[in-house]
Write a structure and sequence with these properties.
Number of domains: 2
Radius of gyration: 27 Å
Number of helices: 9
Shape: elongated
Low-confidence stretches: none
Strand content: 15-25%
Mean pLDDT: 84
Order of helices and strands: HHHHHHHEEEHEEEEEH
Helix content: 40-55%
Largest sheet: 5 strands, antiparallel
Amino acid sequence: MHGAFTKPKVLGGIVIAAVLLGVSGPFQTYEAFALPARLAYWLLICTLTLAAGFFAGTYVEAVLERRLSEWPRFIFSSIATAIAVVVTVFLVNLLSASTPLPGPEAMLLLGGYVSIVSFAVSAAFKLFGVKQLPKTATLLARLPLEKRGPLISLSVQDHYTEVTTSKGTHLVLIRLSDAIAEAGEGLQIHRSHWVALKAIAKVRRQSGKVELTTANGTVLPVSRSYLPAVKAAGLLP
């Protein structure tokens, strides 16, 4: 929300919408307010409904991300957006003595309009918006082009993280925990090492210690504290 409300285009859009609505005075606001108050009313409505709808829709989308497929999530997030917008409009009108409270039929009609618009906007963003990069692609974007390939492992090197791919290694100024967050599916096997699941060649016990061999032949230690995770992944009996 902070990112959205600090963009000049978003702020400019709010102001333009408020001016157009303030001048035209829809929903009986032309009769209820003088021009200055009408402009202030619509600026408040545009700002609050955008914030409430954005929050409600994004929150529901995040909650349902791993439970439903994309289009059902859009439907529920659109409904949540509509409810948030309708409630916001009702509360603003409730606090505004000069504006008549909308009746049940008007509220239902407003909710229907908002649901249709929010679903259309969500669908447009999904169909034509910028696609979010996979986490692995985000990490690989930090590497030179010639080093970008299937991820193998991450290892701590002083204040850097050594990123190993099928095309070589490169040091990136990033904490290991932050690099892991961008790395996709894998296992942290040591406080200083992480391995991609697809890059694990074999795991074996050697002299009472557990070692992991990656696809490029690198042997990495598995510490005791991370051994349960390795067993849970089915890599050790």
